[in-house]
Amino acid sequence: MTNKNTIEIYQTNDGKTCVDVYFEQNTVWLTQGQIVELFDKNKRTISEHIRNIFKEGELQEDSVVRQSRITAADGKSYNVNHYNLDVIISVGYRVKSQQGTQFRIWATERLREYLVQGYALNQQRFDQNAAELQQAIALIRKAAQAPDINATTGRGLVEIVSRYTQTFLWLQRYDEGLLNDPQGQTGGDLPTPEIAMQALQQLKQALMARGEATALFAHPREDGLSAIFGNLNQSVFGESAYPTIESKAAHLLYFVVKNHPFSDGNKRSGAFLFVDFLHRNQRLLNERGEPVINDTGLAALTLLVAESDAKQKETLIRLIMHMLARPCTTPLN
């Protein structure tokens, strides 16, 4: 059973008494007034039994009592003690109530159902995440066999699979789905296609000066780049389709590499625009002033995107997002 709050209605066998039962933290909680109603005893009797339970050391008060603020019929809010199933059972034995026995059986059965359902859901989530992890590792293994890979990029791939596996295990330890999108940082300002092209032209001139690119590098194919930025800026029902910096960055890299908006140099252009976007949004450096991704890691990520199958897009996007998401501040290298 999770810590998610649940309220169920308990009705006695004779149908005369109905109590709203509050489930949380693998137990049930009732107020003193509800216990009075459940056992059909006066408030003084129930108060005396609860007091004696703690006085005799049968239960430790701080572990079985919690205080909650409720709004009464007069509209005012009051702090009210809630007692868990251990207290309710103890009171039931002391008042020798048949209704107490019936309630204990009912509550225990409900708790067992929640535990079984919770285990089944967690196991299903784990199996799904494990399958996605295997897909990611298979993708990395395929990329590692690419003919143009070198030792430096290979080290980047090793670091990626290590970081990804650590992320999976860490999140699973806290019962979180690995491939759920990380919370991320809301926002992220995208440059216009024109500003992006100006930055790419500066990169092109530098590369050509070193003999590392030709005139075809970053040469636009129709309106491919504008279409990508238009896609990243779109909204759905008034909300951004890519609401976080991590999401925009990951999709920007993916779309440029996979959609080939340029005649040549799509991988290098995608990697450059990815870093440029992070820099524009003050996310290229972590909290210690270190780059979140260096040349080796960037080359490895870009190669993963290039070698990936279209049906692996979501796995790859989330992989990149988890690499960028805080508090994961270890540089990817």
UniProtKB/TrEMBL annotation:
InterPro entries: Fido (IPR003812), Fido-like_dom_sf (IPR036597), Type_II_TA_Toxin (IPR053737), Virulence_RhuM-like (IPR011204). Residues 195-322 form the Fido domain. This is RhuM family protein. It comes from Thiothrix subterranea. The gene is rhuM.
